[in-house]
Amino acid sequence: MSAYETMMVISTKLEEEVRAALLKRFCDLISENGSVISVDEWGKRRLAYEIEKETDGYYVLVTFECEPSFIMELERVYRITDNLLRTLVIRLDNPEDINRMTGVVPEVDEEAEQALVIDESSDDSGKKDEVADEAILEETITDEQEEAEAEVAEEAEAVEEAILEETITDEQEDAEAEVVEEAEVVEEKEEVTEDTKAESSEEVDEQQVEEIVEE
Fold first, then answer.
1. Domains of the chain (ranges plus CATH)?
2. Distance (Å, rounded) from C-alpha 130 to C-alpha 178?
3. What does pTM read for this prediction?
4. Of residues 100, 70, 98, 74, the one with CA closest to residue 87
5. pLDDT tens-digit readout, 14-33
6. How far is CA 28 from CA 5, 32, 71, in A?
């Protein structure tokens, strides 16, 4: 037989007695086709996402042993059972998981354990070096990012200055154009005034000539 774990997420809408009966039903089914090692009720927990309009579920973890052929039947019964929000069956191939499940404490070879400690120390040194390298790399990347951000900021300032200068130049040109137009208007007014004066002078001269002729 092989070792398995199955996780059941039961609807929290069920009463405690109904939920216990549902759990017993599955444990009995497993016992008929293998052996239940342990039942760990985790209780009510928040779901990662809403399932069938429910945000919470009652989690139960069952460890057991059975023939691989029984798993298909167990999953079939899961699918046709109401009030089961989610189920999962995992085969335990790791000896440590199997020993943890069955409560068996493996014998430890002292020489092997000592060698393992040495290897772990070496691994720790290697990990420290890796951490140091990663820290240096992160610092380098941070410096490069800061330099790139500074360059972008400088370019943005240069663009803003260019736009400002162009705006000022346009305003100056508009102001100069207005001054020229005003000067032209003044000249036109002066010319009109001079023409008016000349016409008035001619009229006065004509009147004087007429008066002399009459005399």
1. 2-102 (3.30.70.60)
2. 71
3. 0.46
4. 74
5. 999 999 999 999 999 999 99
6. 15, 6, 14
